[in-house]
């Protein structure tokens, strides 16, 4: 019998099912799209459906993973349909949902609801893009409210940790303000920039591609998300607009531009480590590699042999170029070991 019901068989919902199944839990999916529901159930080897009252009473967790405009209604329905289950959602706005749910249920029922939000995703949407390791190393917000119970918060937190994610507790208002800045505003700015692209773009480089990467997004999905969090987003848009106006008023003077760029450098340095996880001050080591098969594999093999973990990397290489530059990001304590070993083996380094 399923321990978990997942409402919404999209990328996140199906990935939660895969991660849960990997950890020995059983689940079943409910989705308005029969194809997505069938595919998610098949991927997770799930029970096809539950129908009786006794079966529903055995469910101890319901995950609402629908588009944001549907979340509150699905949470309310789940709290009634599964009277013994904890109900969580994974939507990207929390305050509006909490207010809607709390206005229609008693405090005792509300205590079984907990808003959460995994900071994870992929360009590939739907159950086809689902991965059991999608949440590994990712931040996952948990937003308790005044009627939340500690044992149920602990239960959800342990589940999130079992998926490889790092849980962060915060109230719903703080969550919405944070995601407005780190997720919603970047989406809007990327889309605004991509929206003015026209004409000959043969000189487009990596900077432009990096800026508009997330612009290729689902308009309906983001319409629901951004309109639902407008109270937190609008002040940020006004701030950006004010700064742009100031640049224009100052005729893009050198001093005004340097001030903007300097502020950007400082701001970027405040972003936590990989995937929004725990902040780490990594050392970086640029290594010149020859453009031939096996070079990357050989480099990674050496790191493995000496016990140095590559935390992140970047590669710069142009077509027809005989060499490339790979920058390895490693723990500060491992840098000297890596430099000594690679130097001894004849690699070209630029520390």
UniProtKB/TrEMBL annotation:
CDD domains cross-referenced by the UniProt entry: ACT (cd02116)
SUPFAM superfamilies referenced in this protein's UniProt entry, alphabetically: 6-phosphogluconate dehydrogenase C-terminal domain-like, ACT-like, NAD(P)-binding Rossmann-fold domains
A Gene Ontology molecular function term of the record: prephenate dehydrogenase (NADP+) activity
Name this protein carries in UniProt: Prephenate dehydrogenase
Pathway(s) annotated for this protein in UniProt: Amino-acid biosynthesis; L-tyrosine biosynthesis; (4-hydroxyphenyl)pyruvate from prephenate (NAD(+) route): step 1/1
Reactions the enzyme catalyzes: prephenate + NAD(+) = 3-(4-hydroxyphenyl)pyruvate + CO2 + NADH
Prephenate/arogenate dehydrogenase domain location: 2-282
Keywords: Amino-acid biosynthesis, Aromatic amino acid biosynthesis, NAD, Oxidoreductase, Tyrosine biosynthesis
Keyword NAD: yes
Swiss-Prot/TrEMBL GO biological process terms: tyrosine biosynthetic process
Domain ACT span(s) in chain numbering: 284-351
InterPro entries given in the database record: 6-PGluconate_DH-like_C_sf, ACT-like_dom_sf, ACT_dom, NAD(P)-bd_dom_sf, PDH_C, PDH_N, Preph/Arog_dehydrog, Prephen_DH
EC number: 1.3.1.12
Pfam families: PDH_C (PF20463), PDH_N (PF02153)
